[in-house]
């Protein structure tokens, strides 16, 4: 099903490197295509939309982002792939039914600060670690 | 309520959340923030009170200089914000995981004995400090205005006490925390270190009986703190006394699966 879904993009694999690969099996894994590759996507969590402005003073929301995409052979197209992700990909190639591909997950996370009231109208300023995805990669 | 960014992917499912799903989503985000319910603060005029303004100052400095070193905070505070947050606060902030301000919960002055009729009381509710947070520093802050009339060239002695024990038939036992000599013409925020007291209050909440202040003239007369320019509950909202505490996470907590 992965192969079928990517059919429209097959036309793009005309580079000498890809054309020489030949086998359909390799074509399935050759998803360095920018549209499906593991990367960061924008996602904004809006405290305003949640109707929380009466207790969250700042910020109005934050760009949490998320990681999505495929971690497929060859992994060197993914700049943030870990060394072990390459091994994981090779093992997956040998045994695709039982061994999963590496996961597309955050490699760099940042903190945010939130300023809010508690029930007693005291104000809390708190740092929350690992809230914002700055970079994604294959693990 | 969780909005996707500018880039809409063709295979990304877009739909409006059902009420139940929205509620679950809110619950999950509250859980990320370490809260088990949505706070319901009672804010009549509280928004413009000194404590939230002070905290907003800290927040703005934090977001401007995100994760920078103390020197950068130092320049920020000395150049743009001499009023509310001080250099000490910038340094505490740098080492803290959480900062919390507490409003004075004393609404009416009690009848104290004739000897202490000029004492003023302050109480702070420390019951909602999240678990696992340890106080690294705490300050009591009170604003002093310039006195131009009665005590024009006077100096005052301001004393801050911790209320140790209350008795039904006599004055409360007090423990002197700090004294400060003030000029009548002096104006600005006065900060008193109450770190030890706050830690004691957190450890044994039933001993949290508040603070008292008293003011003496240079000739030893007790006067109402208001006459010395100290702003109390009837003063401007942005000059209300408050308490601020800086916390560091004392234990690593993992969220439990629900």
H/E element order of chain A: HHHEEEEEHEE
Low-confidence stretches of chain A: 1-32
Overall number of strands of chain B: 10
Strand residue percentage of chain A? 25-35%
End-to-end C-alpha gap of chain A? 23 Å
**Gross morphology of chain A:** elongated
Tally the helices of chain B: what do you get? 5
Query: Span from first to last CA of chain B?
Result: 22 Å
Into which percent range does the helicity of residues of chain B fall? 10-25%
The largest contact between protein chains, plus residue counts on each side, is: A-B, 34 and 41 residues
Radius of gyration of chain A: 21 Å
Structure characterization notes:
The complex is a heterodimer of chains A (139) and B (258). In chain A, 29% of the residues are buried. Chain A is an alpha+beta fold. Chain A starts with a helix and ends with a strand. In chain A, strand 6 (104-117) and strand 7 form a beta hairpin. Residues 1-32 of chain A have low confidence and may be disordered. Chain A is built from four helices and seven strands, in the order H-H-H-E-E-E-E-E-H-E-E. A three-stranded antiparallel beta sheet of chain A has the order 3-6-7, with no helix packed on it. A two-stranded antiparallel sheet of chain A has the order 1-5. In chain A, strands 2-4 form a two-stranded antiparallel sheet. Chain A has helices at residues 2-5, 16-19, 24-29, 83-94; strands at residues 39-41, 43-46, 56-58, 61-63, 66-68, 104-117, 123-138. Chain B is built from five helices and ten strands. In chain B, a hairpin with a 4-residue loop joins strand 8 and strand 9. Chain B has helices spanning 19-32, 50-64, 70-80, 87-94, 195-203; strands at residues 2-4, 98-103, 120-122, 133-144, 155-165, 173-183, 188-193, 211-217, 222-223, 242-249. Residues 1-6 and 67-83 of chain B have low confidence and may be disordered. Chain B is α+β, with helices and mostly antiparallel strands and 258 residues long. In chain B, 29% of the residues are buried. The chains are: A alpha+beta (139), B alpha+beta (258). Strand 2 (43-46) of chain A pairs antiparallel with strand 1 (2-4) of chain B.
